[in-house]
Write a structure and sequence with these properties.
Layout lengths: L4 E4 L5 E6 L5 E8 L13 H8 L11 H6 L3 E6 L4 E8 L3 H14 L4 H20 L6 H9 L14 H5 L3 H11 L5 E7 L3 H12 L22 E7 L5 E7 L6 H14 L5 H9 L3 E8 L7 E8 L5 H18 L3 H18 L3 H14 L4 H4 L2 H4 L3 H11 L5 E8 L2
Parallel strand pairs: 2-6, 7-11
Antiparallel strand pairs: 1-2, 3-5, 3-6, 4-5, 8-10, 8-11, 9-10
Length: 412
């Protein structure tokens, strides 16, 4: 159990304090409850564009990096379908610098055509480099559009198409900011050798006067149950044929999420996993294969993907995967295998949360889900899963009518 304290400012900003006196460093993390799922379908990629714009300076601090470096700090950010997260790590004695920087860009981000032009170009180049010119990079554009017909998970965080970013206006950007980047839609988590009274005083001083904004209420349509299989063929100049298949799975707070997470470990958790052993090592059909999910807040996708060995037919590769899934649906897993993957999952979570920065990031995410204290209880839910749960859930999600298949052929 790690210690957590919580309080909320009058403007709605939720604050969580994690005391850790084993390190001289502190982490200040600001999570905004907005991601690509909150975008207008005709103006996608804005949450990710904002991740970049937030480093372009604020009214009172035109240069974000220099004062942070002078304080011995470093910072970064990431955007997902569900959230946007900013974090600073610096020596604890300089923690007020982080409060000053984060509060000023929340209060008064500097909006200018120049800043927008600079960051728009950066994001457009990123889009081209990672999603247009990179082999297989468009696979998930196809898969998401196939799997989702209503839910905004149907587009990538980078955006549905490049033109949405290219055409983003200053007015569009301002509207998005004042709708989402307000104290009432934010979570501040502070970790390190700090105390709750100290954090409360700093939070009141630097964030307390920022106008609350209006609480953003989502009205996202639930994705309808898929009732028939969907397939697509893509041909491109890639080195090897590739196979992708995904199935709808439960949302992050459902029991089904934990079962699905363990299933990905059974099928794709490294060199000892079923798919790797059978299809890479024994049958030599794939050069690599993986099974994973995206961990989204709303109902997400569990996927299997792999690159075929040159000369292997797509039909044979797909059939081999189906055989492995049929074994799982017929026989499930043994108690020994269940214990192994539960222990492995617990170890992976514990290892990831060894660093203060990772712990603080995780705490912010759990608070977004509803309660930061989930950090202390979440891993227990994996040990509540039974072999019968895995058998039943495998039969439910690996239904052909719940599947989306992408056959990606090499033109070489």
């Amino acid at each position: 159990m790690i210690p957590l304290d919580k309080f909320t400012l009058a403007n709605g900003l939720r604050v969580v304090v994690h005391e850790d006196h084993s390190t001289p460093m502190a982490v200040v993390n600001v999570l905004y409850d907005t991601g690509s799922k909150d975008e207008d379908p005709a103006k996608t990629g804005f949450a990710h564009l904002f991740e970049h714009l937030m480093f372009g300076g604020s009214v009172n601090i035109p240069d974000f990096e220099t004062p942070l470096q002078m304080a011995g700090g470093e910072n970064n950010a990431y955007t997902s379908n569900d959230l946007t997260n900013y974090y600073i790590q610096l020596p604890a004695e300089n923690i007020e610098t982080a409060f000053w920087l984060e509060s000023d860009r929340m209060l008064s981000l500097a909006f200018s055509e120049k800043s927008l032009d600079v960051q728009r170009k950066v994001v457009c180049e990123e889009y081209k480099e990672h999603y247009i010119n990179k082999p297989y990079a468009d696979a998930w554009f196809h898969l998401r559009e196939m799997a989702y017909v209503l839910h905004p998970y149907r587009w990538m965080t980078i955006g549905k198409e490049l033109s949405h970013i290219e055409n983003a206006s200053l007015e569009d950007v301002k509207n998005f900011f004042f709708k989402h980047y307000r104290p009432v839609n934010a979570i501040l988590v502070v970790g390190g050798p700090v105390t709750t009274p100290q954090v409360k005083a700093l939070a009141e001083k630097w964030f307390g006067d920022i106008p609350a904004g209006e609480k953003y209420i989502r009205n996202i349509p639930p994705e309808p149950k898929q009732t028939e299989p969907r397939r697509k063929i893509v041909k491109s100049t890639v080195p090897l044929d590739a196979f992708y298949k995904c199935w709808h799975m439960a949302d992050r707070m459902s029991k089904g999420y934990y079962i699905a997470d363990l299933i990905t470990e059974v099928l794709g958790g490294g060199g000892s996993s079923r798919l790797y052993q059978a299809l890479v090592k024994e049958k030599k059909l794939f050069s690599n294969i993986d099974c994973y999910h995206y961990g989204t807040v709303d109902a997400g996708l569990l996927a299997i993907e792999g690159k075929l060995v040159k000369g292997v037919k797509m039909e044979d590769a797909e059939q081999a995967i189906e055989e492995e899934l049929s074994k799982l649906k017929a026989d499930g897993i043994s108690e020994k295998e269940l214990t192994k993957i539960q222990n492995k999952t617990e170890s992976a979570i514990a290892f990831e949360d060894m660093t203060l920065m990772s712990r603080v990031n995780s705490i912010a995410f759990y608070e977004l889900l509803g309660d930061a204290e989930l950090f202390n209880s979440d891993r227990e839910k994996y040990f509540a899963i039974t072999a019968t749960d895995i058998l039943d859930y495998s039969r439910a999600i690996f239904d052909n009518n719940n599947s989306n298949t992408l056959c990606y052929y090499s033109e070489n």
